[in-house]
């Protein structure tokens, strides 16, 4: 099968990681795979092709009028016109961020079989990774972002002139793929209910994780802690994000929950991600080790060194951190938002807490850390759930089935047999 994957990047975490792993696994199965991304990145394989023209990167401010400036995305317009006939199916991923012509993506969906995997809320909202309207004020969000955005009172999570304009543009022009893919019921429901994709066919395919293999055998916790410079005689709470300073990751709320829990348990924090050191300077009163894990082995060591993983996100689709932690037999304490509800599953795999309730989150931390047996049992239950629902083999098998379904459905529509 000739498969085109489209994403803004290839070497990063989160959704980029999905595209990278998916493309590699598909190629291992003998499929002819090409990936189109926005810009050059270090050490790209020759089958990963940057398509944005250099001048486009200098015109980002024009995105405030996305409907009037869509034609500036000359790289994606030119390349997407070449895709029909070259590939059997196109697999869209994140189209936001000012690198992709929305009109060209919509035309691609009319010209060939396409699936669109929704990793965040962008396609179902006014272009937000996750919307924080009604959860946290615009002013507070801007203050947490700091810098120029704080001075301007600008929040990328709240409606602005730019986001409202993009929302109206998407209402008129959003790509209509042959099949929508979503890693969680939460995301599927958002696509179904937003009104842009009337009659859409939606399939849930949960992300798979290679951590099941990396953590197949339990790692010696003492050794993992020694490697990371963590104490042996204290419980360890892990927090992890690709970018630790992202407001929607809520790490400041997580740290406040840990701070409150220390009245009963003397927990040490392991904080990983870009910007972790900056976050640390804002919580000097907490014992903390910071760093960045770039390989699955390093990630596995971090999960195994911890007693539990804390996910204080204000919005999530289906985060890798949750399923990776469970794959490593570590329970999760998280705010009950988005796809976290589906992976943590209340008392089965950890604790779900009402969003923003740091007191309840601290109590969840205390409850698990004071009961090592409960921590162990919920970690084991989480591992069993991930083994059933989040394998890499299962993810690829289901995705290939989705490609075939999209191809058959598109052919039927072309022949007039499918409405």
Write up what this structure looks like.
The structure is a single chain. 42% of the residues lie in helices and 14% in strands. It has helices at 15-28, 66-69, 74-82, 102-111, 138-145, 147-152, 161-173, 185-193, 211-214, 221-228, 251-261, 276-281, 296-305, 320-327, 340-344, 358-369, 372-389, 392-414, and strands at 2-6, 32-37, 48-50, 89-92, 114-117, 179-182, 202-204, 236-243, 268-274, 288-291, 308-311, 332-335, 350-353. The relative contact order is 0.11. It has 419 residues and is of the alpha/beta class. The protein is built from 18 helices and 13 strands. The longest helix has 23 residues, at 392-414. The chain has 2 domains: 2-208 and 392-414, Glycogen Phosphorylase B (Rossmann fold, 3-Layer(aba) Sandwich); 211-389, Glycogen Phosphorylase B (Rossmann fold), CATH 3.40.50.2000.
Features:
419 residues; alpha/beta; Rossmann fold; 7-stranded parallel β-sheet; globular
Give the overall average pLDDT.
93
Radius of gyration: 22 Å
- Which percent range describes the beta-strand content? 5-15%
Number of helices: 18
> What's the architecture of the largest domain in CATH terms?
3-Layer(aba) Sandwich
- Ends apart, CA distance between termini: 25 Å
Low-confidence stretches: none
Count the E strands.
13
Name the strands of the widest sheet in spatial order.
Answer: 3-2-1-4-5-6-7
Described by the principal axes of the CA atoms, the overall outline is: globular
Largest sheet: 7 strands, parallel
The domain tally reads: 2
Q: Please name the fourth-level CATH homologous superfamily of the largest domain.
A: Glycogen Phosphorylase B
């Amino acid at each position: 099968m000739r498969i085109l994957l489209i994403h803004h990047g290839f070497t990063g975490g989160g959704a980029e990681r999905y595209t990278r792993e998916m493309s590699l696994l598909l190629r291992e199965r003998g499929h002819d795979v090409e990936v189109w991304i926005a810009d050059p990145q270090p050490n790209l394989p020759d089958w990963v092709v940057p398509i944005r023209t250099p001048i486009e990167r200098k015109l980002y401010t024009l995105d405030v009028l996305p409907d009037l400036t869509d034609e500036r995305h000359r790289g994606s317009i030119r390349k997407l016109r070449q895709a029909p006939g070259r590939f059997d199916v196109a697999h869209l991923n994140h189209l936001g961020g000012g690198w992709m012509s929305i009109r060209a993506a919509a035309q691609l969906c009319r010209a060939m079989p396409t699936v669109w995997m929704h990793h965040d809320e962008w396609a179902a909202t006014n272009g937000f990774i996750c919307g924080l309207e009604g959860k946290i004020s615009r002013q507070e969000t801007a203050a947490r972002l700091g810098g120029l955005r704080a001075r301007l009172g600008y929040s990328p999570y709240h409606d602005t002139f730019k986001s409202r304009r993009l929302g109206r543009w998407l209402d008129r022009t959003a790509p209509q793929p042959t099949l929508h893919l979503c890693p969680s019921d939460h995301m599927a429901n958002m696509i179904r209910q937003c009104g842009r994709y009337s009659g859409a066919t939606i399939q849930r395919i949960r992300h798979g994780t290679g951590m099941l293999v990396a953590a197949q055998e339990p790692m010696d916790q003492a050794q993992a802690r020694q490697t990371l410079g963590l104490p042996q005689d204290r419980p360890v709470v892990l927090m992890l994000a690709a970018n630790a300073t992202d407001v929607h990751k809520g790490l400041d709320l997580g740290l406040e929950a840990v701070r409150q829990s220390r009245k009963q348990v003397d927990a040490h924090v392991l904080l990983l991600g870009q910007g972790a050191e900056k976050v640390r300077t804002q919580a000097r009163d907490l014992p903390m080790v910071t760093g960045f894990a770039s390989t699955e082995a390093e990630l596995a060591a971090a999960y195994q060194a911890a007693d539990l993983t804390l996910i204080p996100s204000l919005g999530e689709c289906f985060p890798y951190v949750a399923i990776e932690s469970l794959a490593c037999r570590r329970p999760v304490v998280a705010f009950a938002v988005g796809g976290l509800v589906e992976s943590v599953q209340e008392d089965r795999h950890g604790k779900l807490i009402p969003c923003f309730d740091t007191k309840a989150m601290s109590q969840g931390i205390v409850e698990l850390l004071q009961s090592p047996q409960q921590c162990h049992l919920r970690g084991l239950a989480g591992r069993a759930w991930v083994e059933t629902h989040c394998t890499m083999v299962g993810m690829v098998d289901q995705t290939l089935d989705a490609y075939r379904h999209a191809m058959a459905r598109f052919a039927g529509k072309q022949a007039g047999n499918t409405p």
